[in-house]
Amino acid sequence: RFAQGGQPAGTVGTADPAGAVQTFHPGADIPAQWWMLFHSPALDRLIRHALANSPTLDAARHALRVADENRKAQMGPLYPSISVMYNPARFKTSRTYSAVPANNSWLYTVHTAQLNIAYQPDIWGGVRRGIEVTTAQRDSARYQLEATYLTLTGNLVQAVIAYAALRAQIDTVQSLIASQQRILDSSVRQQALGQLADADIAQQRAQLAQDQALLPPLQQQLAQQHDQIAALAGDMPDDPTPDFTLDGLTLPRDLPVSLPARLIDQRPDIKVAEADWHAACAQIGVAIANRLPNIQLNAQPGFAAASVGQMFAPGYGQWMIAGTLTQPLFQGFQLLHQERAARAAYEQAAAQYRAAVVSAVQDVTDSLVAVRTDASTLV
């Protein structure tokens, strides 16, 4: 929106103190390794180290794997369920009853082996809608991984720039303190010669103390920034990290600008909201299918014999084929309320999607304004 309503595409921005200009390119693609635009080998090594060691990114990768396996598991009901059963059993018949006719014995053994085959046709599409749910959840996990990647790299670059800025401030304050100390030493010598009064020396000492008081907070912030960089990289605070300075970072000259029309295809947060919306829609189909009649088909072919050797002989085979039609009638309105909850969740996901789009457009617009105003302050 800013690029469309402001200056035309390819507009040259303001120049920095070195005379270099920044050029904005609306609609240009942002490189995956965008931090390379700063031309800092140390920054590139740090980010590559963070991408390989960050526990947050590692957790997002495993979350994607969990979602993918859940999707594959959800596809199982589309196929028949087959299991095998073998049951050797020893029986004793009471003498009250006649002996078992097969062998005229009160003690006998029965070996039973059979297949259990069950299949439930997906008549109303409930299984397929369930697969849609898990597919959308997998997509959401993938986009969350992308968002984690972008957040990690973005926060790390910001932390490095803040660290370098604090280093520059500390160097400036230390230089200022050194200058104030030299002035104070010179003033003391002049006072000894009778050229300055005590009030002048006191004023100079107060100015030096005031400048010295600026140093500890900056050093504390620098240490905290170092710890933040280590945490983002997956390291401990006492692990060594590069010592960044502003001189080691180059201001990017060409800045790609995303247009609002392309945000939906680029921003992971919008894609996550879209995938969640899709999953909520599919949940409605699952809830509706649960309220409709279902057919269960079963088959149990097998053998039953007095010994294992007889099991495959003619005459010892057995089988059962059955079909079951089930229609839910009353479950305390549970299925009805589950469907209504699914529809409400769909409306909630739709509102969250719209909110994500609005927030993304605002974020991009604010970032563009910040880039332009920050560049203007350098003139």
Secondary-structure blueprint:
Blueprint (H helix, E strand, L loop, with lengths): L1 H4 L6 E4 L5 E6 L14 H13 L1 H20 L6 E12 L14 E13 L6 H67 L5 H16 L1 H18 L21 E4 L2 H7 L1 H22 L4 E6 L2 E4 L11 E2 L2 E6 L7 H44 L2
Parallel strand pairs: 2-5
Antiparallel strand pairs: 1-2, 3-4, 4-6, 4-7, 6-9, 7-8
Helix pairs in contact: 2-4, 3-4, 4-5, 4-6, 4-8, 8-9
Structural class of the helix and strand makeup?
alpha+beta
> What's the main sheet like?
6 strands, antiparallel
CATH class of the domain at 28-256 and 293-326: Mainly Alpha
Helix fraction by DSSP (H/I, runs of at least 4): 55-70%
Radius of gyration: 37 Å
How much of the sequence is in beta strands?
A: 15-25%
CATH superfamily of the domain at 28-256 and 293-326: Outer membrane efflux proteins (OEP)
Low-confidence stretches: 1-12, 14-19
How many DSSP H or I helices?
9
Mean pLDDT, nearest integer? 85
Number of strands: 9
What would the CATH topology of the domain at 28-256 and 293-326 be? Outer membrane efflux proteins (OEP)
Give the overall silhouette.
elongated
- SSE string, helix = H, strand = E? HEEHHEEHHHEHHEEEEH
Q: Please give the alpha-carbon distance between the first and last residues.
A: 25 Å
- The CATH architecture of the domain at 28-256 and 293-326 can be given as Up-down Bundle
Membrane topology: Lipid-anchor
Main location: membrane
Family: Belongs to the outer membrane factor (OMF) (TC 1.B.17) family.
Subcellular location: Cell membrane
